[in-house]
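tokens incoming
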């Protein structure tokens, strides 16, 4: 884009993009160090404020610290009855941390925070190689200061490691683009394959952009580009498929049930509940029925245009990511990034095929566009925090576009586009901040004023006040990042728990969920009482207790430190264990108590879970412990 934004004239471009020179300006290393240290301080400081975060995943990490089989499969308990409803990559990392440092909130959450620091660092390196260190620093800063990034990099959901693996894949594609390197393209495939082992098909959202950028801009023949891409697809298949194959070949009787699947299959889970079911809203795991909802959660039926699970993500459409539910998470810089992408592609329309600026825009801008479209039109379950996977694409795109437009500011057209990006960002930040009117009301007006000043300075003052260019640049950066940075800092300073965490000030309503918190009853757990904990801690059986649904049983396991069987998995709807299996466990004296009150968010007490509950109620004595009904399965 640089050549397109400078004065017109004949341009000679090296058809083989080379790596940036080894000698960088002296300010680069200190600036990168400041970026990484500040990011680490933001993400790691007081990370344990959120306790166990999402108790559902914390329960599985706890199990993995006690049983290697549970660690490998991602089981909810060390007895390996049923898995989480995701593959186990993130659980592997957190489980190893728990084994090394002891299982605690800190050992659980610090790996996610470090994944965030690594993601920022890798994004800097990737953007720098094609667009220079200044651009890389801006991109890394934009990612670090995205509210949903601060949310998920301090939380134990799989999303933190998904982002790290996707950014690693992007970095490898950039390295492959430099010299048409087969090795680096294969490594990109490996990163995406392991992304599949973290969050299944969501990892594949970046593949269209990766393929497009390499197919267009790699400095080699078309035939070689095609076979290299096929080889990379094979790398994706192998790196994702080894665990899938291991699970498929493992004797079913000797492994846990794959939660969320209808036939105990990882592939069915990937393409059903966690795949096409998320996109088209068909099938929701377990028995495949539409979920039974937690009390108070409004998820109307999908009917007509703009349907979808409104209680989670609102209606479908291109405006979804700008709604109250999604807007504050990752959209602060999205309008400007889209403007910059369109302008950048226009300015580079006559550039050589291997032009580095256009290749970077195709890579990161394609990542952004595909993610926007998919997240906007998903008709199945979608949570606002999913947009953390969009954040690197937005950050890199706006960094590349803004820096290239700034370099071409001598011409009016690039200057006008940059001014438009600044004005759009300021206005959109004002709107987002106005959605939390009681929190720092002065801030939105400061952003608006700074944005107006920066816009005017870029549009009219840069040519006449050349010596003031650094001041204008700093003013533009402050105006651009102040709104998103403020939300990011308050997000990092707030405790988040449950299955519906959202960014922003605590206690502020943001479209169906409590900002800064979790959604009680969905992904959260009912806290165990001291008396109940003591009862479970006194047991010596394989499972101290069993309860329907992991959303409640997780709280028992974490507070008591004892193995608890989550009947029916996450939602209580998985057929694991069956009634016959549970009766066998009880007959062998392996389960001491059955704790009533569990139901999970989706399954209720129907099906297998209902059969087990009925059998327990009819055959074992009940008592009340700390206000909870408990059945002693060792007595009749």
């Amino acid at each position: 884009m640089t050549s397109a934004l400078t004065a017109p004239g004949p341009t000679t471009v090296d058809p083989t993009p080379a790596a940036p020179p080894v000698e960088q300006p002296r300010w680069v290393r200190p600036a990168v160090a400041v970026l990484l240290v500040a990011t680490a301080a933001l993400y790691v400081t007081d990370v344990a404020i959120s306790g166990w975060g999402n108790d559902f995943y914390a329960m599985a990490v706890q199990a993995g610290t006690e049983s290697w089989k549970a660690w490998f499969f991602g089981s909810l308990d060390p007895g390996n009855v049923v898995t989480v409803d995701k593959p186990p990559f993130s659980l592997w990392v957190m489980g190893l941390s728990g084994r090394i440092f002891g299982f605690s909130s800190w050992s659980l959450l610090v790996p996610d925070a470090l994944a965030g620091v690594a993601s920022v660092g890798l994004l800097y390196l990737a953007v720098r190689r094609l667009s220079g260190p200044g651009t890389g620093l801006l991109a890394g800063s934009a990612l670090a200061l995205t509210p949903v990034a601060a949310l998920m990099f301090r939380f134990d959901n799989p999303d933190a490691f998904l982002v790290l693996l996707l950014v690693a894949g992007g970095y490898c594609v950039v390295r492959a683009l430099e010299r048409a390197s087969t090795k680096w393209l294969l490594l990109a495939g490996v990163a995406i394959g392991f992304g599949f082992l973290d969050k299944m098909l969501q990892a594949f959202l970046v593949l269209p952009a990766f393929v497009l950028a390499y197919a267009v801009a790699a400095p080699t023949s078309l035939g070689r580009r095609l076979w290299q891409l096929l080889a990379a697809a094979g790398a994706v298949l192998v790196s994702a498929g080894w665990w899938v194959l291991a699970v498929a070949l493992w004797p079913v009787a000797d492994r846990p049930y794959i939660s969320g699947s209808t036939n105990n299959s990882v592939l069915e889970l990937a393409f059903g509940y966690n795949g096409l079911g998320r996109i088209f809203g068909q099938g929701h795991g377990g028995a495949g029925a539409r979920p039974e909802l937690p009390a108070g959660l409004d998820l109307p039926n999908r009917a007509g245009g703009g349907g979808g699970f409104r209680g989670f993500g609102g209606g479908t459409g291109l405006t979804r990511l700008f709604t109250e539910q999604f807007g504050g998470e990752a959209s602060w810089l999205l309008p400007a990034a889209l403007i910059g992408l369109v302008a950048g592609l226009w300015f580079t329309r006559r550039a050589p095929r291997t032009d580095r600026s256009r290749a970077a825009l195709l890579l990161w801008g394609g990542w952004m566009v595909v993610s926007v479209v998919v997240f906007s039109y998903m008709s199945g379950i979608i949570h606002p925090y999913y947009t953390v996977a969009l954040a690197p694409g937005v950050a890199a795109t706006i960094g590349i576009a803004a820096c290239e437009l700034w370099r071409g500011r001598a011409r009016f057209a690039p200057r006008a586009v940059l001014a438009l990006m600044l004005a759009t960002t300021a206005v959109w930040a004002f709107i987002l901040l106005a959605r939390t009117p009681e929190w720092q009301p002065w801030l939105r007006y400061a952003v608006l004023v700074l944005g107006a000043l920066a816009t005017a300075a870029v549009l009219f003052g840069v040519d006449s006040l050349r010596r003031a260019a650094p001041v204008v640049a700093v003013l533009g950066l402050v105006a651009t990042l102040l709104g998103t940075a403020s939300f990011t800092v308050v997000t990092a300073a707030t405790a988040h728990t449950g299955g519906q965490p959202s960014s922003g000030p605590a206690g502020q309503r943001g479209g169906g969920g409590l900002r800064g918190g979790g959604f009680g009853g969905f992904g959260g757990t009912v806290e165990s009482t001291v008396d109940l904990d003591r009862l479970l801690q006194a047991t010596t059986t394989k499972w101290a207790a069993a309860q329907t649904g992991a959303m409640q049983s997780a709280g028992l396991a974490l507070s008591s430190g004892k193995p608890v069987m989550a009947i029916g998995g996450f939602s209580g709807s998985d057929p694991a264990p069956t009634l016959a299996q549970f009766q066998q466990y009880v007959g062998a004296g392996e389960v001491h108590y059955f704790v009533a009150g569990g139901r999970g968010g989706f399954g209720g007490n129907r099906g297998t879970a209902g059969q087990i509950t009925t059998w327990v109620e009819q055959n074992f004595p009940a008592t009340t412990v700390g206000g909870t009904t408990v059945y002693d399965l060792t007595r009749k």
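note: Strands lie at 543-548, 564-567, 591-595, 622-625, 628-632.
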